[in-house]
Design brief:
The two termini are 82 Å apart. The chain is α+β, with helices and mostly antiparallel strands and 358 residues long. The chain contains 5 helices and 19 strands. The chain is elongated. A hairpin with a 2-residue loop joins strand 15 and strand 16. Helices cover 28% and strands 36% of the residues.
């Protein structure tokens, strides 16, 4: 009985050894899980075109002929002409709030000057009478001194009120008062005008007068992008104009006026003036119509380009990363035109070359 009991135990021990050996072999055959390798986006240098267009929104207006300024600074008072009014040469357009004070000062000055002139005239008439009546030399000499004193008094009054003694005093007073008024320099239509209460200087355009029989397009520039857009424009630059009411129509024109320093216009006038090469018919082109002006700032064909995400910039240097013989390396590049989706590659890369993105 004892012998038969020992045999099964030996078999069990043998089986256990075989199982343990199999587990050890299975564990040694397991491959460790690798870490994920980061995937970098790549871009290929391509050859193509870059076109930069700007759309401006404008309005058809009478062509500007004259601009009007006050001859002195102040605040606009009464305005006697509105936009689209037809005015005649010499017509009063507006005056300054300061006009009333100028008129009061002119009245006081005129009275003071006139008083001094009268005193001089009385002294001169008295001298003439003394000479005619045969007064003594003493009396005549004293009266001549009275005339001289009256002349000095008159000159002091003129200097006090800022009047040139060599000029016609009353005419100069009228000229000073007139500085607070503006008049139409020519017949025409009011294109733009100033509002009451606005502070102005002698360089502020307060009215623009146009020719009611000729038209131009005045387009606004986005103030946030004005410098960026205007720097690439020039007077005489061709444009395409589309009436908003007839998008199927296309009119050729050119820029006639840009604000300073980009053109010959006023610095404060952030608008672009456009004239058409040929006037359209009156049925689809009249004062007040809104239009879209397409300005092509740049057009390059057959150039190398990359998307913006392919380029990097550090410390003012623009570069890309490419695969070299010894791994990734940096290559400085020169760029040109830029749009939202393309940047011109001027040098240091070749067509078909692959760069690694950021």
């Amino acid at each position: 009985m004892k012998k038969n009991y020992l045999v099964p135990i030996s078999c069990l021990f043998l089986i256990l050894c075989i199982v343990l050996a199999g587990c050890s072999t299975a564990q040694s055959a397991v491959t460790p899980t690798p870490y994920p390798t980061p995937v970098r986006t790549t871009y290929t240098v391509q050859r193509g075109d870059i076109v930069i267009n700007v759309e401006l929104f404008g309005r058809v207006t009478p062509r500007a002929l004259n601009v009007v300024y006050f001859q002195m600074g102040g605040h606009v008072g009464d305005v006697y002409a509105q936009v689209n009014d037809v005015v005649n040469k010499g017509q009063l357009l507006a005056d300054l709030v300061e006009l009333k004070d100028l008129q009061a000062q002119a009245t006081a000055t005129r009275d003071a000057i006139r008083r001094a002139q009268i005193n001089l005239q009385i002294a001169q008439l008295t001298l003439d009478k003394f000479k005619a009546d045969g007064h003594s030399d003493y009396d005549i000499q004293v009266q001549e001194l009275q005339v001289e004193l009256a002349q000095i008094d008159l000159e002091e009054v003129l200097v006090k009120y800022g009047i040139d003694p060599a000029s016609n005093a009353l005419d100069e007073l009228d000229a000073q008062v007139a500085q607070a008024k503006v008049f139409a320099p020519a017949d025409g239509v009011i294109i733009s005008g100033v509002n009451p209460g606005r502070a102005v200087s002698n360089t502020t355009v307060v009215f623009t007068i146009g020719d009611g029989s000729q038209f131009e397009i005045v387009a606004d520039v986005d103030p946030a992008k004005s410098d960026e857009q205007l720097k690439d424009m020039f007077e005489g630059m061709p444009v395409v104009v589309t009436p908003n009411s007839r998008p199927d129509l296309k009119w050729a024109g050119k820029i006639s006026l840009l604000p300073s320093p980009y053109g010959t216009g006023e610095t404060s006038d952030k608008t672009v003036h456009v004239v058409l090469d040929q006037a359209p018919s009156s049925e689809n082109y009249k004062s007040g119509d809104t239009v879209t002006v397409l300005v092509q700032l740049a057009n390059k064909t057959g150039i190398l380009w990359l998307p913006p995400a392919a380029l990097r910039e550090v410390g003012g240097r623009t570069f890309v990363i490419v695969n070299g013989d010894n791994g990734p390396k940096r290559v400085d590049v020169e760029i040109g035109l830029k749009t939202q989706d393309r940047i011109e590659i001027v040098s240091d890369l070749d067509e078909g070359q692959v760069v690694i993105g950021q």
